[in-house]
Design a protein that fits this description.
The chain has about 475 residues and is α/β, with parallel strands linked by helices. The protein is about 40% helix and about 15% strand.
Amino acid sequence: MKIIGRESEQNLLWKLRNSKKPEFLVVYGRRRVGKTYLIREYFNNNFSFYTTGVSDKLMVDQLRAFNDSLIDAGSNQKKLPTDWFEAFSRLRELINSGQLKRDPVSNKLIIFIDELPWLDTPKSNFKSALDYFWNKYGSAKEDLLLIVCGSSTSWILSNFLSSTGGFYNRITAQIHLAPFSLKECELFLSDNGFELSKRNVIETYMVFGGIPFYLNLLERGQSLSQNIYYLIFNENGQLHNEFELLFKSLFKHADIHREIIIKLAKSKNGVLRTELAKSKKIGDGKPLTTALKELEECGFIRKYKNYTKDKSGYVYQLIDPFTLFYIRFMINKEFNSWTKYFDTPGYYSWLGNSFEIVCLNHVEEIKYVLGISGVDCSIFSWISKNKDVQIDLIIDRKDDIINVCEMKFTKDEYVIDNKYEKELINKMRIFKEETKTKKQLNFVFISLNGLKRNEYSDIIINVINGDKLFI
C-alpha cells in the first residue's frame, strides 16, 4: 500500500533520514490515526531495530518482547535482561557490533520503538534507562535516527512535550499526526476502490471522521447506512465498543476525558470551563486543565474565545465527528435501527451540527477558497450577550475585513427566504453593536450544495459549496 497525503510529515521524515546529525523523533496522535503505518511504509519496514510495547502487560513481559526484538536483530545473548538499563545496554552493544542493517537510502541506523508508553510500567525505571541511552550514547551518534511512537497522548505530553517532562529538549523533531482532511479521505477511499461523489465523502466524514482505520473498515457494495449498522450498531461490529477503547488507550485518567466529551456533545455551541468544572464527575483544578489540553491536542475539541473577549474565559467545543456520532446515536440512543432514524428531527439536527464540524476542521481550506491564505487572520466564535444570536465561525482579518461564516447542510441548493434574510441582517446589526467593530463585514455562506441566488441572497458576499473544501 502507499501513503495517502501526509505531505508535510513525509517531508520531515526525508529531512531526518538525510540529516548529518543524531535525530530523536517523537510521533504521537490519537488511536487509529495511522502513526505506525506512516513510519513503516515510509521506511519500507527496513529498520535497524524494531520493537513495540505490549498493551496491559507487566515489566517482565515488556522486557521479554524487547529481548525477542534484540535476538531478531542479531543479538547472541538469549538471557532475559534484568532491567531496562541492561536492555538498552544490549541495544547499544548490538549497534556497536556493526551487524545491524542500515537504511538503504541514507545508510543511517534507524531504531523504531512503537507504543513506547506501554513499556513504561510502574516502578520499571524505563524512562531513566531510555534517557540514559540517548544522552550517554545516542545523542553523540551522528548516523542514528531514533523514532518513538505512541497513542497515549497524556504520557507523550507529560514526558516529551511538557517543559517539565524528563525528555524536554532531548527530542529533535515531533510529528503530531492528525486525522485525514476531506481531500485525503477522498484519495484514501478511491485507493480502496470506492467511487464516491464528494458529497458521499463528506457524509462519510461526518460519521467516521478522517480516521484511516475506520475508513479502511468500510465495505464496498454496501451503502453508508449499511456500513454504519454493521460497524457500529451491530454488537459484533468492530467499532461497537470503540468509544470506550479510544479514551482508555489515549489518556491515563480516561473517565474525566469521557465525561467532558459527553457534556460537550450536549451543547452545539460549546461549554465554558466554569460550567464543566461544576460537574461532580469532572471537577476543577489541574485534572480538568490537563484533560482539556490533551483532548485539544488529539483534535477532539477546540478552544476558542468569544469575539468580544468575555472575561468568563474560553469556550470548549466538540469537533470530532465520530465521537459526536457515537454519543448521539449509541450512548444516548432511543432506537435500535439506524435507517429508522432517517427524516426525524434529531437526525437533521445531527446533520447540521456535524456539517458545521466538517467546516470547522477545514478552516484553512475555507481561507484558501476566499483567497486569504496569506492574510494574517484570527479565528473566533461569538455569542451575543443575551445568548440569542450565535456565529460559529468568524475569520477576523488584518486587512480590516471580517468574514462571518454561515454553515448549512442541505441536499439541494440552499434557498434564502425573506425570514432568513432578516435574521442575517439582525445578526449583523447585533454583532456590530456589541463588538463595536469598524471593520467591513462579509457574509460567507458554506453549504453542501451551494446557494440558489434570488432577491434575498444579495447579503451573501461569498458562497462555498462542499466541493470547495477538497483543497
